Structure formats: structure tokens, C-alpha cells
Amino acid sequence: MRAEVPGSGRDARPPHPHPFAAGLSGTSVRPTVRVRAVVPVRLETSSATFRPTDPYVRRFWVAAIGSAAVAELLRLVRAAEKGEGVRLPRYLPSLIRTELVKAESGGLVVMDHIPEVPKNLRWRFPPSLAADHNRWLGLSPHRQPGHEDQGDHLADGEGHRHPNVRLTAEEQ
What we know:
By secondary structure, this protein is of the alpha+beta class. It folds into 2 domains: about 40-110, no CATH class; about 125-170, no CATH class. It contains 5 helices and 6 strands; from the N terminus they run E-E-E-H-H-E-H-E-E-H-H.
């Protein structure tokens, strides 16, 4: 038996026997296609450094987990701020694995501030982005986070530097 999408002339899978599974004008839809459930999202306060709108989130988290996962994280934060539910995110496993989202029995929990990218994900950064990341956080390759920095006068008031600020040898 040969099945085709109407008017396309290309092979397709046979139509599903249930009428509710049919798409436009007789095209077939797999029975596994489902509308994703809507889940409630709650916003929780966090001691992390970066606001979701901070350029750090888009620049470095995108390199670590991908643009689609970051877009879903921002969508979750926005929905939580509005008190709305959202369709179950496709990238929820990676958001949970990176601890950007928590799953509870009543829905999802997102933080009002985003942490810095953990070291175990920074290996994905190309060398130039890793250097920018270290400058952004005010780290030299030999220092650890949390140590005092002599260049704190270059921070933006929230504990991180602007990525375009470059320190001279005297300021480091």
C-alpha cells in the first residue's frame, strides 16, 4: 500500500484510523503527537548574581546550554512574574540538570536571579569566550571566585564587570 500527502506526490505514512488524529485535509498525524500540558510556574528569590535580563545570561548561558533552552528559561521567568502557567518546556531536562529550574509536585520553580555558569559547563566555551567570562567575573586564571579583587571599582554595582572593560597590569 502506498500513502501520499494530498497533492504532494511524496510518500507518507498511512492515515491514522481515528478521525481525531487527522490534520489538515486528510493528512495523517502520528498518534504520539500531543499538545504539551500547561504547568504552573512559581518565582522564588535567589542569592544568585544575575537578573534574567542581564546580558550575561544570553551571552554565557546560551554558549553553555543552547539558545532554545535559555529562551525557555526566560519564558518561564516571565510567566512566573505574571503568575501564568506555561506549556511544558521541551528543554526542561537540561534546565533541571543545570539547576536553573526546579520541579515540584505543584509545578515548576524558577529563580528571580540566575547563577554564573558552573565550571562543569564552561568547557564548552571557546577560548575567547572563556577569557571574556573570566573578565566579566573579574577572575584571573589563578584566582578562585569569592576572593577580593583590587579592580572592584570597575564593577557595575551588582558584583560583576562589564565585558568590555579590560584591565591594565597595574589595575590587576
